[in-house]
Design brief:
Order of helices and strands: EHEHEHEHEHHEHHHEH
Largest sheet: 7 strands, parallel
CATH topology: Rossmann fold
Oligomer: single chain
Structural class: alpha/beta
Number of domains: 1
CATH class: Alpha Beta
Helix content: 40-55%
Strand content: 5-15%
Number of helices: 10
Shape: globular
CATH superfamily: NAD(P)-binding Rossmann-like Domain
């Protein structure tokens, strides 16, 4: 398979359950991959599969610049794809008592950190071939998620960041992926918090883990968004679990419809006949 033959792609968060599945499918599709994350053992496995690797911790303010320098050296100054597959459910608990310092740190890492990576890699993307940026959003963006305020704020803000970048950078494709409920370590925090802090979502998590969406579903969507097959699709939030993105009719909607795959207020307009 050569859907991404010789495309130069960075994956941030590559040592997570979804990130590692993305790297595997990118390599299978013929891409050259620089995989980053905090888990050294997981990075070693990805290196064995053919990826270049780099330890990266977004809590380190110098990480984005360091990654851009490493990517520039690895890929001769150009980047065709940037995937940011990071996230955390913490802090968990009632919004009225959430620790603001912990919340601020979570937003800085998940949201500001993602933007810092995009900014650091912007010139490399400009030099790339049909560059594509893929971020991750999810249920916290499309519906309320009580007791997960930092996660929900980061995810809904990620969607607006994608929409802004898509308009500001017309030479790039910029999209967000909603992976569905995937059984990864992100749910460990909910299980540890218990019903007292997590509320009803604790028992829902236990139940949904038994029928989780496989990480390969999100990975396949990411491959599509990084490939030439997704040309013209930008500024969208696309669900790996619910949107039939392989269907040509759905792809046409993603290219042409003003609202499909975007977060918008739905107004109920009432029309009164004039007297």
């Amino acid at each position: 398979m050569s859907l991404l033959r010789d495309r130069r792609i960075v994956v941030v968060g590559a040592t997570g359950g979804i990130g590692s599945a993305i790297v595997d499918q990118l390599l299978h599709a013929g891409a050259h991959v620089l995989a980053t994350g905090r888990d050294r053992a997981a990075l070693e496995r990805l290196a064995g599969a053919g990826a270049s690797t780099r330890v990266l911790d977004l809590d380190d303010a110098s990480a984005p610049a360091g990654l851009a320098a490493a990517a520039g050296e690895r890929f001769s100054g150009a980047l065709d794809g940037l995937v940011i597959a990071t996230g955390s459910a913490k802090p968990i608990g009632p919004t009225r008592t959430v620790d603001l310092a912990v919340l601020e740190r979570a937003l800085r890492t998940q949201l500001v950190g993602a933007l810092a990576l995009v900014q650091a890699c912007a010139e490399l993307l400009d030099a790339g071939d049909s560059p594509s940026v893929v971020l991750f959003s999810g249920g916290g963006a499309t519906a309320p998620l009580p007791r997960y305020t930092a996660y929900a704020l980061a995810k809904v803000a990620t969607v607006r960041l994608v929409e802004n970048l898509a308009l500001e950078e017309p030479a790039w494709k910029v999209n967000a992926v909603a992976p569905g409920f995937v059984a990864t370590h992100i749910h460990d925090a909910t299980l540890a918090a218990g019903p007292g802090l997590a509320g009803a979502y604790h028992d829902e998590t236990v139940s949904r883990l038994e029928e989780a969406v496989p990480p390969t579903a999100a990975a396949a969507l990411v491959v599509f968004l990084l490939s030439g097959e997704s040309e013209g699709i930008s500024g969208r939030l696309i669900s790996a679990a619910w949107d039939d993105w392989r269907d040509e009719g759905v792809r046409a909607l993603l290219r042409e419809d003003d609202s499909f795959g975007r977060l918008r207020r739905i107004d109920r307009q009432q029309f009164h006949a004039s007297e």
